[in-house]
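User: ok so my PI wants both of these folded by tonight, can you help

Assistant: No problem, let's get them done. Here's the first:
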Amino acid sequence: MPRILFRSILGIIVLSTTLRGGQAPQPIPIDDFESGALAGWTVKVNGAGGWFVYNKGKTAPDPSKSDPNVPFDVPDPPQGKFAAVTDMNGPGSRIMYRDLKLDGRYTLQMIVFFVGVGRFTSPETLDHDTIGANQQFRIDLITTAAPVDSVAKGDVLANVFATSPTDLDRREPGAVTFDLSRWQGQTVRLRLASVDNQGPLRAGVDNIRLEPIGR
């Protein structure tokens, strides 16, 4: 049966799939958060709150960092017992990222959801302490040399997902997919960023994985 090999070198996830007997390649998990921790991720927070692993949609993972005036109320983890989510008790920018070294052609797949307060806005910055509203959740591929909070065109390789001013303030868990074939043989940085300065924006993700293409 297929063997999926994982090696971690200086925080970079190196992915490879070994096939036997002509069987179809299997999905390669990046993180389903079933470890109960954010192992392998780097988190950068400016302002209040952070990224957390949680297991109950109506129970804040860290009540001391959750706004009691807008109770924590997100979907239960859509896959398994745990998922990752942002929570906060004030304005902030919360970034979670990790590097992926791609040894072949893959489709990035994950489950995404969010629960917010107020209308989304998408200024070209991940700084919450800015003039005007900044209320957004986005997932990007960026270069490993870029500042982790940069949204400059030369730093962002591709936008995988982004909220829009026309979105409702709640998204139930749903699949997001993105073709990574263009970066075969390269190392890319997967960044998840949630920013709010108008009210809590709890953004979540689960079951992040790679689907091999054409193997």
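One down. Here's the second:
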Amino acid sequence: MGDPLDPFDRLTLVAAAIAGAGIGSKLLVWLQHPDLLRQVETRDLLSGKSVAGALLGGLVLVECVKRWIGVRQPTGDLFVLPLCLGVALGRVGCFLSGLDDHTYGAVTSLPWGVDFGDGVRRHPTQLYEIAFLIPIAIWAARRMRAGVMDGSIFRGFLASYLAFRVALDLVKPEPRPYLGLTGTQVAGLIGIAYLVWIAYRLRSPRTPITSEPAVASLTEAARGG
């Protein structure tokens, strides 16, 4: 178990992952909130980040770079635990930021609803995400200890995280301009479909591809959407 890449390829893919994460985190915010594209103020246009967008952006750009430099082996498994930790820590910050962070859920009468300072109880969606990441991290750690480093850990993490975000937006007060879906739900469903296609291709002996991104830590991206 370890990093299968030489130093140059590793740095190249990490750089691609960081760049893709930055681009994707912003693009998904614009997809989620298309009204931002009409803002005159640059500050408003550039505000906000999305973890789901960062993961998808990193996936797309790293895949492109891997094809360009000829890297075929899976490389994403090593980054699952750092990603779980980074996103969880970021969501702690989101929760403590309260209403200013705009990552809270819809109004609820459930007993665990949280008042973020305006007298209204809302779903603590940041805590839901942390609770979701804990078993994912445990599962990934056990797979890694068992010596499973074939890319399936990253694929499982990303597919489950996207599915979770699709479900989470059902209890978030987000605009739903895409046939009743939010931008995050649309992007998440597309990402899941892509991962299913990868899994199908990997099962075919005539198409021996590996499709795993080396995604760098996205703690900073976890501060938004």
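Confidence is low (pLDDT under 50) at residues 207-219. The longest helix spans residues 7-32. Good luck tonight!
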